[in-house]
Design a protein that fits this description.
- It is built from nine helices and 14 strands.
- By secondary structure, it is of the alpha/beta class.
- It has two domains: 247 residues, Aspartate Aminotransferase, domain 2 (3-Layer(aba) Sandwich); 103 residues, Aspartate Aminotransferase, domain 1 (Alpha-Beta Complex).
- The strands form four sheets. The protein has a seven-stranded mixed beta sheet.
- α4 links the parallel β3 and β4.
- The structure holds pyridoxal-5'-phosphate (PLP).
- The site of pyridoxal-5'-phosphate has 12 residues, from α3.
């Protein structure tokens, strides 16, 4: 078997330890301290003792990993990050109430599109005119005092732009899409009203999304909505209002546990810094053979788009990379070029292999 280094943006690489554990449990599940279940974890009821234990452990481990205070509820939901982008408007804004959006890339656009039917979307700041290469200066944001919330995308997965600090938004709660950077460094949850993250980048598999929400905000009446769109109803049912994505939840639990065992977010922050530095140094030190256009202060540690000086070399670069055991590097169609996604499951050795390949390719093509 030869597993490649996978730089895919999402679904993304999972730790090999997690996949091996899952492979064993796929056939017959034996929970910690439990008797053999006699069935796969995928086949067991979500109301049974095995899965209830899986679900509770996942929450305990996630709370410990991220440092989630008791004043915050944690929900495990289907529907992806995109669904939360609509649900936050329905749950926390009165019909037509303003909500402020800071637009720093593709996923900010998606967030606006999903919320627009329900709220008066106000673009408080945007870097779109300059091609999403920076975070707009906080002094230039135009926030509304009557906004239901301020929404940011903590890390723009496609444009490779990341907030490097937490903006202060006064009495209006800050909502953040952390899909592609959660658990990659210490996070002061208390500064946010709500954090959501699709799991398929840093927390596990696709098919499950984590919502971390300040409990008092759930008292807001929001807008008329079915129970299945109501965060309060999901919380009251322990995220089992209907059949939850149990396999995905289980894999998320394994991944979060793995991150704790590796040493937690401080360790991943250190590794992320090292990986990002290695890659940006290679790009910046290539005399223009490779290029990343993002403002240095806003460069993402997780998703690093880069371009070859001559786009006609792209196909050859990708084919050679694949041969060298490096996959998932093709850039998003919105930007073209290349993108290396280096989430927590990507070891430093993977980025070392990538940068060695990049230097080698440059040597033979310039
Ligand atoms: C991947 C991603 C999304 C979309 O997630 P889905 O689970 O496909 O809905 C939203 N925001 C960010 C920042 C992402 O990286």
């Amino acid at each position: 078997m030869s597993r490649a280094y996978n730089f895919s943006p999402g679904p993304a690489a999972l730790p090999e330890d997690v996949l091996r554990r899952a492979q064993a449990d796929m056939l017959e599940y034996v929970g910690p301290g439990q008797a053999a279940a006699g069935a796969s974890i995928v086949e067991l009821s979500h109301r049974g003792p095995e899965f209830l234990d899986v679900a509770q452990r996942a929450e305990v481990d996630l709370r410990a990993l991220i440092g989630i205070p008791d004043a915050y509820a944690v929900l495990f939901l289907a529907g992806g990050a995109t669904t939360q982008q609509a649900l936050i408007a329905l749950n926390f804004a009165a019909m037509g109430q303003p909500a402020d959006y800071v637009l720093t890339g593709h996923w900010g656009h998606t967030a606006i599109k999903q919320a627009r039917p329900y709220v008066d979307v106000r673009i408080a700041a945007s870097s779109e005119a300059e091609g999403f290469k920076a975070i707009p200066d906080r002094a230039d944001w135009r926030l509304s005092a009557d906004a239901a919330y301020v929404h940011i995308t903590a890390n723009e997965t496609i444009h490779g732009v990341e907030f490097r600090d937490t903006p202060e938004t006064g009495d209006v709660p800050l909502f953040a899409d952390f899909s592609s950077s959660i658990a990659s460094e210490p996070l002061d949850v208390g500064r946010y009203g709500l954090i959501y993250a699709g799991a398929q980048k840093n927390l596990g598999p696709v098919g499950i999304t984590v919502v971390i929400v300040r409990r008092d905000l759930l008292e807001r009446s929001g807008q008329p909505r079915a129970g299945i769109f109501d965060y309060r109803a999901h919380l009251a049912a322990d995220s089992m209002l209907n059949t939850p994505p149990s396999w995905n939840w289980y894999l998320l639990g394994l991944t979060v546990k793995w991150m704790r065992d590796e040493g937690g977010v401080e360790v991943f922050a250190e590794r992320s810094r090292a990986k990002a530095r290695l890659l940006y140094d290679t790009i910046d030190g290539s005399d223009g053979f490779y290029r990343n256009d993002v403002d240095v202060a806003a460069r993402s540690r997780m998703n690093i788009p880069f371009f070859l000086h001559d786009a006609r070399l792209d196909a050859e670069f990708l084919a050679g990379a694949r041969e060298a055991g490096l996959i998932g590097l093709k850039g998003h169609r919105v930007l073209g070029g290349m993108r290396a996604s280096i989430y927590n499951a990507m070891p430093v050795a993977g980025v070392e292999a990538l940068t060695a390949y990049m230097r080698d390719f440059q040597q033979h093509r310039s």
